[in-house]
Each structure stands twice: as structure tokens, then as C-alpha cells.
Amino acid sequence: MRWGTILIPTLREIPKEAEAKSHQLLLKAGYIRKLSSGVYSYLPLGFRVLQNICRIIREEMNSAGAVELLLPALQPAEIWKQTGRYDALGEDKISFKNRTGTEYVLGPTHEEVITELAGAYLQTQHALPKTLYQIQTKFRDELRPRFGIIRTKEFIMKDAYSFDADEEGLKKSYQNMYHAYQKILTRLGLSFDIVTADPGIMGGKVSHEFMVRSEYGEDHLAVCETCKMVTSRDIAARKLSKQTTPPTSSKIEIFDTPNLKTIHDISTHFHIAPRKLMKTIIYMMNDRDPVAACVRGDHEVHEGKLRNLLGAKQLCLANAKEIEKVTGAPLGFASPVGLRDVKIIIDADLLLDQDFVTGANQKDKHMKHVNVGRDFNYSQSGDIRFVQEGDLCAQCGNKLLLITAMEVGHVFQLGTRYTECLNVKYKDSSGAEKLVIMGCYGLGVNRIMAAIVEQHNDSKGMKWPVAVAPFQVELLTVNHSHDGTREAADQLYSKLIEAGIDCLYDDREERAGVKFNDADLVGAPFHVVVGERNLVKGVIEIKKRASQESLVVPISEVLGKVQELLRD
RNA sequence: CGGGGCGUAGCGAAGUUUGGUAUCGCGCACGGUUCGGGACCGUGAGGUCGUAGGUUCAAAUCCUACCGCCCCGACCA
């Protein structure tokens, strides 16, 4: 395609709104344009990349035996109420009423719709197993769209759903998708980590996330460089130290802290390091029993770990009233010291230090010189917090690193989370009705595009892998008004097109520098440069964008060479 | 929702403190000279200065409200 035919509005300067590299480059090279916060248009080049990503996804999904369909984005709110996710979606849901008063949700995901469909058609064991997928726009009113197309309110997702007769079938389907995802991301030129994850709002027990390491990710990986273990920070465990520190001889002192409730308030106001503070968080276990969870001021309680340690069925943060009842003080001044009829759980790190500052269980007061064991007893100690950089690897005991990463894919073994709510059953060979077992599998197409840019760029622009590049080759003339140059380039262009090569032909009458810079920015993997200087010698220059290395070949061999390069 | 920053031509900015003809660079159009890594000269087009109200002889500038955008944080006491 000729440059003048399509729309490639490259910019000389990077719009100041862009911070992430992918955001900057995609704007500068004319791939995307923002319409409003978190809402983007994909210009011709951007659209071509999206299509290439989708093509690869389709190929791998199809060859894994999944079948494509298309579900509606416009979904009656009613089906969301049936699965109980209407409320769980909360503010993220974009919903409205039509003229007759029916409420609709712009689909943020499609479990409800597909499950309804499965209920209608997958009623016999012969219909199972089945994996259906679609590539569709999802709508989520994100609180804060971020980093260009990494987090947007409207995005394209490939979502697949498997339906099986039993758990064993689900495991097979899950493995199948898991491998397909590995192939897809590898073909897309991404290096990635697969980590076990917390299924969260989606439900189910087993889930894995496909993570791409990037400065602009919103998630964290706990990485051990020694034993190479990688886990999601959300669920990473740590090895606990066996040491303990004896208490100090200083006695507890109560001091005034008017209106200073948070760790940040206390630490800045009194110049005390957060690690010398102790946070006491009150939870209610099984809706009845109060629990005080204590961690260092610079740590965060991990509700899941706490729940596991307690063996609690249900655990949630206490509300203001409950806190007041348990501690005798308003929110912000809790301490384990003097608490009665409350189970106290401490994080093991509290045993490694002495002399903490805690609340005083009185309004506007805290206490210092608090020592574990001396001033209060606890029922259990253990790992009840999120890991931090420098914590010890649960597997080998060496130090963990925290690395930011973005989630590009997520697979879940949902089980009967949805089929139960929507009563999706099949008849087995004995005629008995059984719930269909589901899995679901998502890939963020736009985010994958951003991830590829994040991993393939340099100071001049993008370096697309051949598989996803908007064009495989960019042909450009050094001086387009020179007849010989133009004629040679025109001929080459026809040859490349005839050979089925996706070629962008920069036929603009721009100066060489402009064209070279735009070519590097746009990032086609190979550049074919036609210039008078080489032409008189009967040769043409081919440049590899990724390495910036050039080779010179006779005109007649250009096509063959390009084909060879594309094959490799 | 809280904190911070910002809104002036397609892009990047100055001007706002101290009210007085809307300015500069890039890009765009036309003419010319150039032509292998973002050329140069000349001419020109392009603006509700985010929106609405107020103060004033006079508002991009001062006041009030609202809208939008970016970054950080968000039931952790």
C-alpha cells in the first residue's frame, strides 16, 4: 500500500499526555488516537496490528479445536442478576435503560451470555465437550484508565469458554487452552511468565495468569532469581525467619495523637519509620468472632493468608461500629494490647523486632514501647501479609524481587459457578441430569499490542515482529522526484506485491531524513531503500529494523532476499 | 472519590504573577533553491485562549461554578 493512500499521521513530538513507552510510540507513529479518557480509535496501522494479533489467535484457537462465534455486547441486566454479578460489577458496569424501561449492560465479559446459550444447546453428553470463543469488544467503566491502551474503558478481548461433562474433562480443556495460549504469545513475539492466580470475582478454584514483564504493568510478580520461581505477588508466600528478638525494658507509654489515624499520619508527624509501627486490623470471622490481625506498619495484611491460617470459612473487615465495640476506640486507634475476647493473630515479622508503636484503644491516643509477648499474647503467628521485595523465597530461601508486569491473558477453571446459577445441565448415559462444568479463557488483544511495543522498541521507534507488523516490508525512495529512483521503486513495489508481500511504499516527496525516521518509527521489520547512489551500482539496500543492520543486494535479487528474510 | 499537575491552531509551548492589538517553533498551503538520516528563503491559511457566569472602559490574564485530560493513591486504621 502506498503511504499517500492510507492514513499515517506521524508526529514529530510526543504528546505530553503519554508516559508509557507503548503509549508514546503508538501516538507518535500514528497507530492510535484518543477520543476521550480510556477510549481510543485505532488508525489504519494500529488496526492492521490488531488484525494480525487476532489472526494468530484464531489460528491457534481453531487448531486447538475451539469454535468461533459472536455474542452480543448489549446484554439484558436480568441475566447478570441471575448470577449475582450485577452488584459485584458495581461501578465498573456501564448500564442504561432503553425506551421501554428495560435495563441493559454493555458486556464487560460474557460468562452469562454464553452460559445461557449452553443451557439451550448443550443438554446431552454428546454435545460435550465443547469450547467456544469469540473476539469482541468489552466495556468496563474503569475508575482510572491508564497508560494508553494498557487499561481502557473499551477493549477487545478474545474470550473462550469450555463446557465439559466432568472435572477430568475440564482439566483437559484447560490444559488445551493453556498450551494454546503459550503458542499464541510465543508467536506474537512476547516473553512471558505464567503464574497461578487468585480467581477473584470470576469464581472457580484454579486459575493462571499470563504476565508480560513491563514497567507499565499494574500487577506484580514475586521473582526469585536463584531458583527462578515466579509467582503472582497477590498470592506469593514467603519463608519465615526463625529468629526472635527479646522485648526491651522500656515500659509502655501512652501519648496524644489528636486526629492522627493512619500509619502515614503517625510516621510523618512523629518521625517514626513505618516499620516501627504495628497495624492492628479488626476482622469478623464467620460473621461472629472478632479477630485482630497485626502486621508491621509498612506491611499489608493478606486476607486470604489470614483466612487460611484461621481456617475461617468467611472473613471480612469489621465495620466502624464493630471496631468500636471490639477495641473501645474509633477506627484508627486499635492495638492488640488489652484486647479481650478477641483472637489475636500476628505476622511472624513482628517477632523479629521490639518496641513498637500501636494505637491505644482510646480515641486520639497511641502507645509506644509495645512488645510482642510481654505486653500482649497472641493465639497464632505466621505469614499473614503480602510479600515485599527482599522477602525470602518460599522455595529456596533467597531474596525475592518484585517486578511489575501486565496481565495479557487469564485462564480459569470455573467449575459450576455459572452453570449452577443458570441451571445448565446435561443428561448423562443413565439419563441423570448433571451440571455442566465450565472453564473460561481470556486474552486482551489491545493490551497484547501494547505489550509487544513495550518489549520491542528502541529510541527511534517500534520494532515489530514479522508476525504482527502492520507491514512486513517498507519500501522507500530516497529522492522520489528522481525519475530513475521512482521507476526502479515502482517496479520493485509491483514485484513485492505480486509475490504476496505486505508492503508499505513510502512514495512521498519528502526528504530522505524524514522518510528514514518515519520508517524507523513505524517499525516494519525490513526496509528496502531505493536511492540513486546505490542504483548506479545496480544494488538496493535492505535494512533490518530490529538490529539496524544493512545489506546490499543486486536489484534482481531483492525479492528473493526479502522472502528469505521473512522466512527466517 | 482524595492528592498533585494541566487545558492557548493538528502537535509542542510562551503569555496569566502586574488586565491593554493573541505570540513562537513544528506541521499545513503556494512559489523558489535543495535532496542518503527530521533542509533553507519568501508568502499565506488556520484560534469560541476548555465552558458558563461575574468584576472592569477593557479579561487568555482577576473572581465563582462547572467540564475535560494526565500522574499518584484509594475499605489496611
From TrEMBL:
<dbReference type="InterPro" id="IPR045864">
    <property type="entry name" value="aa-tRNA-synth_II/BPL/LPL"/>
</dbReference>
<dbReference type="InterPro" id="IPR007214">
    <property type="entry name" value="YbaK/aa-tRNA-synth-assoc-dom"/>
</dbReference>
<dbReference type="InterPro" id="IPR002316">
    <property type="entry name" value="Pro-tRNA-ligase_IIa"/>
</dbReference>
<dbReference type="GO" id="GO:0002161">
    <property type="term" value="F:aminoacyl-tRNA deacylase activity"/>
</dbReference>
<feature type="domain" description="Aminoacyl-transfer RNA synthetases class-II family profile">
    <location>
        <begin position="33"/>
        <end position="465"/>
    </location>
</feature>
<dbReference type="Pfam" id="PF03129">
    <property type="entry name" value="HGTP_anticodon"/>
</dbReference>
<dbReference type="InterPro" id="IPR006195">
    <property type="entry name" value="aa-tRNA-synth_II"/>
</dbReference>
<keyword id="KW-0030">Aminoacyl-tRNA synthetase</keyword>
<protein>
    <recommendedName>
        <fullName>Proline--tRNA ligase</fullName>
        <ecNumber>6.1.1.15</ecNumber>
    </recommendedName>
</protein>
<dbReference type="InterPro" id="IPR050062">
    <property type="entry name" value="Pro-tRNA_synthetase"/>
</dbReference>
<dbReference type="InterPro" id="IPR033730">
    <property type="entry name" value="ProRS_core_prok"/>
</dbReference>
<dbReference type="InterPro" id="IPR004154">
    <property type="entry name" value="Anticodon-bd"/>
</dbReference>
<dbReference type="Pfam" id="PF04073">
    <property type="entry name" value="tRNA_edit"/>
</dbReference>
<dbReference type="GO" id="GO:0006433">
    <property type="term" value="P:prolyl-tRNA aminoacylation"/>
</dbReference>
<dbReference type="InterPro" id="IPR036621">
    <property type="entry name" value="Anticodon-bd_dom_sf"/>
</dbReference>
<dbReference type="InterPro" id="IPR036754">
    <property type="entry name" value="YbaK/aa-tRNA-synt-asso_dom_sf"/>
</dbReference>
<dbReference type="GO" id="GO:0005829">
    <property type="term" value="C:cytosol"/>
</dbReference>
<dbReference type="InterPro" id="IPR002314">
    <property type="entry name" value="aa-tRNA-synt_IIb"/>
</dbReference>
<dbReference type="GO" id="GO:0004827">
    <property type="term" value="F:proline-tRNA ligase activity"/>
</dbReference>
<comment type="subunit">
    <text>Homodimer.</text>
</comment>
<keyword id="KW-0547">Nucleotide-binding</keyword>
<keyword id="KW-0963">Cytoplasm</keyword>
<keyword id="KW-0648">Protein biosynthesis</keyword>
<dbReference type="InterPro" id="IPR023717">
    <property type="entry name" value="Pro-tRNA-Synthase_IIa_type1"/>
</dbReference>
<dbReference type="Pfam" id="PF00587">
    <property type="entry name" value="tRNA-synt_2b"/>
</dbReference>
<comment type="function">
    <text>Catalyzes the attachment of proline to tRNA(Pro) in a two-step reaction: proline is first activated by ATP to form Pro-AMP and then transferred to the acceptor end of tRNA(Pro). As ProRS can inadvertently accommodate and process non-cognate amino acids such as alanine and cysteine, to avoid such errors it has two additional distinct editing activities against alanine. One activity is designated as 'pretransfer' editing and involves the tRNA(Pro)-independent hydrolysis of activated Ala-AMP.</text>
</comment>
<keyword id="KW-0067">ATP-binding</keyword>
<dbReference type="GO" id="GO:0005524">
    <property type="term" value="F:ATP binding"/>
</dbReference>
<keyword id="KW-0436">Ligase</keyword>
<comment type="similarity">
    <text>Belongs to the class-II aminoacyl-tRNA synthetase family. ProS type 1 subfamily.</text>
</comment>
<dbReference type="InterPro" id="IPR004500">
    <property type="entry name" value="Pro-tRNA-synth_IIa_bac-type"/>
</dbReference>
<dbReference type="InterPro" id="IPR044140">
    <property type="entry name" value="ProRS_anticodon_short"/>
</dbReference>
